[in-house]
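Agenda item 2: NAP complex prediction
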Amino acid sequence: MKIAVIGIGLIGGSLAKELKKQYPQATFLGIDHNAAHLETAIAQETVDTVATLSDIDKADRVILSIPVKASVALLPQLLDRISENCLVWDVGSTKKSICEAVASHPKREQFLAAHPIAGTENSGPQAAHLGLFDGKPQILCEAKKTRADLLDWAKKSFRQMGMYLRFMEPKEHDKHMAYVSHLSHISSFMLGKTVLEREDDEQNIFDLAGSGFESTVRLAKSSPEMWLSIFEDNKAPILDILTAYIDNLENFRKQLEEGAYNDLYNQLKNTNQLKTILNGIKPN
Ligand code: NAP
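Presented output:
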């Protein structure tokens, strides 16, 4: 079996490592526009050989793991090139535009729209590692549009990585990701920006970060290329939740200014329910 990985960074590289464990006899082809990343991936034995898009017709499986806007542009051309039993799946953080891009493609049934809810703020092949997906959800969108034998193979493989599966429609997926993930990244980036603009002593940032700053701005260390692509692609749901968030911030500011401490307390107390939610819901 030949498995091609387009975008040999954190997610593509980690998937390649997992699949190497599952299929030790398979050959892994690395495709990436970053020559240094390809070199690292070869040196780390994440992939066996460097390839280009012209080699895609030889692949049995193709993982598409580049920023979402680039995936939307490339995916139809990939489907044009693949052989009849090849499965292509993408791992992009938004799903509506990718599913729309191939909706009427003659090889639509050879594509699976997936989103592993796993990752870190680190990027590139050096960040890839085994175990990244263990215990994490894999969201599959429009799974019924994928050919049954190819879908079964992918489901089995994801479960072997320790993932549990959830099924969602692309529009729903993008809306919920805007709420739970994309807003967190925006607020982390903007919190970091505000502090960098106001606190001109970097030593103070370093010394005082343990008070909560470090954990709250962890996401602000994420790749700007990847996140701009997500914000652009999921603009409407993000604008909607951003308005609600700004309303809450303005309300907080007003209540603090007016000394409405009981109201502030109640909001903080109500929000503590996150403790139960985040500890309590177990995978199916
Ligand atoms: P990453 O670590 O930056 O890896 C992406 C790799 O693809 C890099 O080597 C990058 O090179 C290369 N690349 C970018 N555009 C390309 C193009 N047009 N053609 C060929 N190579 C290209 O990113 P990642 O975190 O693995 O993210 C990959 C995908 O996974 C994204 O769609 C993202 O939305 C999704 N995802 C990410 C996470 C997460 O937490 N990171 C979680 C779930 C899903 P350069 O760095 O030189 O551009």
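Discussion summary: Residues 173-280 form a domain with the 6-phosphogluconate dehydrogenase C-terminal fold fold (CATH 1.10.3660.10).
Owner for follow-up: CH.
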